[in-house]
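$ run holo --ligand "pyridoxal-5'-phosphate" --emit tokens
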Amino acid sequence: MNPIQMVDLKSQYLRIKPEVDAAIQHVLDSTAFIQGSSVREFEEQLGQYSGSKYVVSCGNGTDALLVALMALGVGPGDEVITVPFTFVASVEAIALVGAKPVFVDVCEDTFTMDPSLLESAITPKTKAILPVHLYGQCADMEPILDIAKRHNIKVIEDACQAVGTEYSFADGTVKQAGTMGDIGCLSFFPSKNLGCYGDGGAMMTQNVDWAAKLRAICKHGSIEKYHHVCLGLNSRLDALQAAVLQVKLHHLDEFIANRKAAARFYFEALKNVDWIELPDNKENTVHTFHQFTIKVKEGKRDVLRQYLTAKAIPSMIYYPIPAHLQPAYKYLNYKETDFPVSERLCNEVLSLPMHTELSENQLQYICETIVNCPL
Ligand SMILES: *Cc1c(COP(=O)(O)O)cnc(C)c1O
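-- output --
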């Protein structure tokens, strides 16, 4: 059995090496390293895959969030509602445009924004809602979009962990993560479900004017070179990354299928372990398992983690500290007990190895080790 890794990018690369190497060589031969044809081609292909009218690529997922907020005119004096149980970038982007991050707690079972808490957090200053599709599962978008519409507030989806995840509405409509709100943000960080070999990101929108605005902001606020119509920055997906992403987008359905198969193995093998809670698999959102995150009763999580480490099984805590208790966001004046679900989850969650190359032997070993853990 090969050593178990949290994410195994090497084995995946070896499996698709001929395609990736040829795509990279093609860019090297063209020497069009910035905004080459592979970038536009990838944007078009991702639009087709996700059902998004417009895809605007950028430098990384954090920039995608930042540029989305800039395009919607969010700034000082505005409030943006998000969750404290997320990767810090969701909150950071709001603070970077000078707006105030306002938190609502997450649901105990899905780890995503609790729509029942949303309305009471809305004030006349609320400009946008920024739900996070955590671990590969969509936030409950139908009620979130309804509330946003009623209050005339924009919705920016942090879909950085959920490319390809489908969400079903009550009327039967199915949409992909990132295509439901006003702007959806993706990250192509190497370990994400669609990852490149460096940094990369994209924004998706169904609105032609915002697409143009997003594109302009990423190019120093210009549509025509050296004519600057608004404040912008430099955020680009480079051609080498786009070439890698074109190859990997081609394999994305298969990658997601591999993740789902590993998840099925975990669900089956761990279903009778009464001291852990398995992730929720809601019917209205097809989980793509960016992470397979279990909950371990408070106090026992760290014991299990040490035990797994001793047995050469890696695991990770995403995330150990909620955003509202991070020193960087102390100025928001939140305190412990403000978001009890997020705070409890930080003490209970443990993400198990999850990637496209897990073998049955490896999964068997991981699950047997957990089942036999003396807790
Ligand atoms: C990865 C991630 C980001 C940021 O993406 P980068 O490409 O690393 O900048 C933002 N939000 C969430 C939820 C993420 O997982």
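-- notes --
The chain has two domains: 9-104+111-246, 251-371.
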